Queue: 2 jobs
Job 1
Amino acid sequence: MTSAAADRPVDDLLVGVLGGAGPLGRGLALRLAAAGQRVLLGDADAERARALAAEVAGLASAAGGGEGSVQGGADADVAGAADLVVVAVPFAEHAGTLGGLAEALAGKVVVDAVVPVGTDDLGTYLVDVEEGSAAQQAAALLPDSAVVGAFHTVPVAALADLARPTVDADVLVAGDDAAAAATAQALAGRLPGMRGVYAGPLRNARHLEAMAVVLGSVDERYGAAAGLRVTDV
Amino acid sequence: MTSAAADRPVDDLLVGVLGGAGPLGRGLALRLAAAGQRVLLGDADAERARALAAEVAGLASAAGGGEGSVQGGADADVAGAADLVVVAVPFAEHAGTLGGLAEALAGKVVVDAVVPVGTDDLGTYLVDVEEGSAAQQAAALLPDSAVVGAFHTVPVAALADLARPTVDADVLVAGDDAAAAATAQALAGRLPGMRGVYAGPLRNARHLEAMAVVLGSVDERYGAAAGLRVTDV
C-alpha cells in the first residue's frame, strides 16, 4: 500500500512516537523536536506522556529547536492524530499496543524500531518472533499501514545528549513499500549527523533488530555508545 | 579452549584460507599477502589451488607485498599446515569440508566467514542453520578448535581491487574464546584501512552473517560495495 504521508514533505508531518517514555522513544522525540519537527509523544499513561512531553519540549527549545513542538498523549490518541508513527515500545508491549491501533494507523507510515531481546548469563540475546521480526509482527497487526523497520541501531545514549550537536550513525531502513521507506529515510535525515540508508525488504528488519544486540555487546566491551555507518554509499 | 596460535604475534602466523577460490577467500588471501602475511590458499582441488595461489602471489607482489607469500594446496593439507585458518567456502560445502578436519584443526584458531544464504523472488535471504549460525556449526564440528565468526561484512569487490590502497570497513568478530577473538581482530588489522572490533559471544555470529545479507541489499540499491564502520569505538 501507499500511504498519504509518504507523499508529503517529511518536515510537514506530525510525527507520533509510541513508547515515548523509553530511552529510544524519548531520544528520538527530543532530537526530532530540536530539529524543528512537530512531535506527539505517546505513552500508555496519558498524564505521564504530557509531563514528559513538556520536559522534552523544554530541552529541545533550550537547544534551539524553535519551530518544533512536543505534545503528549495516550498512545491510541497519538496514533490517531499523527501523520507518521514511530513505534518504540518495549517488545513485551508491542503486540498489545499495536493490536488495538489498526484502524487509527490505517493509511499511515509506521516505523517500527522495536528490538525483541531477552537477557541471560551471556548477556542480551535476540528473542524469536513468530512473524520473523518485531517489524513483521507490526505489519501483520496493521494490514492497512505501510510498515518499515528502522532506528534499531541508533546509539540511544548519544541521542539523549544534546551537548553532542550531531549523532554519528546511519539509520538502516528495511521495508517493502518504497514510498514509506523513502519517508523513513528522509525522517532519519532530519536528525543532525544521521542519514537514512535503504537496507532491503521488510524481512531484513530481523537483521537490523539483531544488530542492536551486536551493538549492545560492542557498548559493553568498549564502554561506547556505538552506531553504524555504511561505507561506499 | 585457548589455542597456541592465539599466543603468537599475528604477523608470524601462517594463515590458511579454505575456499580460497571464492571471491571472499581469494580477496582475503590477496590482501593478506599484499600486507606481508604468509598465506596458504586452499581448495577442494589441489591443482586449482596451486594455480590460483601463483596468480594471487603475483598480484600481491606487484602491489608491493614483498614479504608475504602464497602457496596453494588441498583444503585438508592447508588445514594441517596452517597456524590459523579462515573458512570461506560456500555454505553448501561448509559442513562437508569441516567435518573431516577436526583433527587437523585441533588447537588452532578457526575464523569462520561463511554466510548461509539462499535466493528467491525478493533477493537473497539468510538460511536457517540448526546450530544457530555457520560459525556455531563450525564450533560443533571442531570441538578442539577456537572458533570465531568474522569477515562476513567485508566488501568483497573492494577487497579484490588493489587499486584501492585501503578498504573502508571494520571487521566485526564474534567469539567465546577471548584470545582467539583478539587474534582475529589483529589479523583484520593487518588489512589496510580495516580494523577488528569485538562484537560479542559466538552466538552473535548469526547476526554478523545476517548483516552480509543486508549489505547485499544495500549494494543492489546503491550500486555499491558497502561495508560497515562502528562509530564511537
Note: The first helix of chain A runs from residue 23 to 34.
Job 2
Amino acid sequence: MKVLRLNPPKLTVLKIGGSVITEKSEELTPRMQDINRLADEIKNAAIQNLVIVHGGGSFGHPVAQKYNISSGFKEGNQQGFAETHHVMTVLNGLFMDALIWRDIPAISITPSSCITTKKGRIQSFDEARFKALIKMGFLPVIYGDAVLDSELGFTILSGDQLVAHIATRFDTGRIIIGVDVDGLCSADPKTEKTAKMYEHLTLAELKTLQSQICKPMSCDVTGGMLGKMTELLPAVEHGIPVMIVNAKKPNYIYKALKGEDVQGTLIEKE
Amino acid sequence: MKVLRLNPPKLTVLKIGGSVITEKSEELTPRMQDINRLADEIKNAAIQNLVIVHGGGSFGHPVAQKYNISSGFKEGNQQGFAETHHVMTVLNGLFMDALIWRDIPAISITPSSCITTKKGRIQSFDEARFKALIKMGFLPVIYGDAVLDSELGFTILSGDQLVAHIATRFDTGRIIIGVDVDGLCSADPKTEKTAKMYEHLTLAELKTLQSQICKPMSCDVTGGMLGKMTELLPAVEHGIPVMIVNAKKPNYIYKALKGEDVQGTLIEKE
C-alpha cells in the first residue's frame, strides 16, 4: 500500500472519545466545559499537520442502537440512518464552534458525504481533498458517522476505524487517543480498584494480552479499551506509536500534543 | 453528457433561497418560523425523488465577502474559509433539524466534503452516492458552501450552480426555485411599483430579456433574478422546466411541489 507523504512534520492524529465530549449516561448531552477546554488545549498546543477524529458518545450510539443501523438498510429504517447522521453533525457542530471561534482554521469533513464502506470497512475515501486541506494549513476534523455501505446499504463507521485508516494512509508520526480513563489497564479501572495500568506495551505484549483475555468483545475486562486497540492494531503494525491518555484531565491532551511527559499508555511496534 | 436515469417519478429539485430562511439584513440570523413552515409544507407534500438545495443568506454571504473567499486561497485567509464553511453547516443544521424531527428521512450532503471545483465550476461530484441515497428513499439536502478548487485553492460554490448541475446530471422532471419575490419581473419588485411579473417565458424569450438588460450583474434591474437565471439556463436548455415561486408565502412551495396552480414564473424550453 502506497503511503502518501506530507511535508514534515509528520501527521498527528488525535482521537477525542465520545465519552469525553458527551455525557454517556444522558442521551444527546454534550459536555460543553470539556469541549471548550479541549479546544483551548488544541489552540495552545498549535501543532502543525494535525487531524482530529471524534466519537459519537451519547449522540451517535443510542440512536444508532435504537434503529440497529450497523446491521444495514432495511425498508423502513431510513429515518434511523437520517437521525443518526443528523445528531452526529450536531455534536460535530458544537465541537467545531469551539474550535472556529478560537481562530483555529478547522474544517469539518462529513464521512457520509465522502466515504463508502463495504461490510463496514472503509472502501473509498477521497484522500486528495484531505491531503490538500492539510497542505493548505487547515485542521481537518472528522467523526464517527452513519455512512453508505456497498453491501449493507448503510452502516456505522467508527471513529477508531477512521483513525487507523487515516494514520496508515498518510505519513503519520503518532496517534493520540484521548479517553475517559488513564490508559490501558489490566481490568476496568472504573469498577476494579486492583486494575493496573500499563505504561508501555510493545505490539507483541499487546497481542499476548489480547490472547489472554476472553475473546468476545462483551467480556472485555479492560472496559472496552482492548477492543478499541484491535481497531488500532494496523497502525501500530505500521510503526506508528499510539499514546492513550485521559482527555478529561486538564492539560493531558495539551502535553501529549506538545510531546511532553504525560501519564498514559504508550504502545509501540517494538 | 450521459444523464443518469432514476426510477420514475423523475427527480424534483427544490431550491430554497437564503433570503427565505435567513434575515438578509442581520448577520447569522435564521428565520426559524419560515424554516419550520417550509419543513411542514415539504412533509405534507410527501414528494418522492426530491432533492433540496438551499442558499446561504446572512450566514454564508457576509463571512465569504469579508474574507473574499470566492477569489481563492491566499496565505492567511484559511480562517475565512473555515468560518464560511462552519456557518453554512450551522444554517444547514437548523434546516435539517426542522426536517428530521418531522420524520422526514433527510440526509445533509456537505459540498466541501465531496465536491471540488475548477475556477469556480464543479469539477468532481460523487454521483454514485447521491443516486444511492435517492434510490433508498432518502431526501438529500445540499447547500451553497466554501469548497476546494483545483486552481484557486478554494472558492464559493453557489446553491444555484448546484441546482443546475444536479438537474442536468440526473433525470430531472422539474426545478422549483423558492425566493422572496413573486417571480421574475421586468424590474425589481421590491423597489419598482411598475414592475411587471412574467408568468411564462420560453428560453428564447428569456434570452431576449437578458440581451435587453445591461450586462454587468451589478445593474441587474430585476433585483438579481435574471442573474440567478443565467446559472439555471443549462437546465432549461436540457428541457427541464423551472418554476420560480415566492417561498415566503404560505403553501406556495407546497402547491408547487404537488403540481397545483400557484402564482409564479414558469420558464420552459419552448
Note: Chain B has a mean pLDDT of 91.
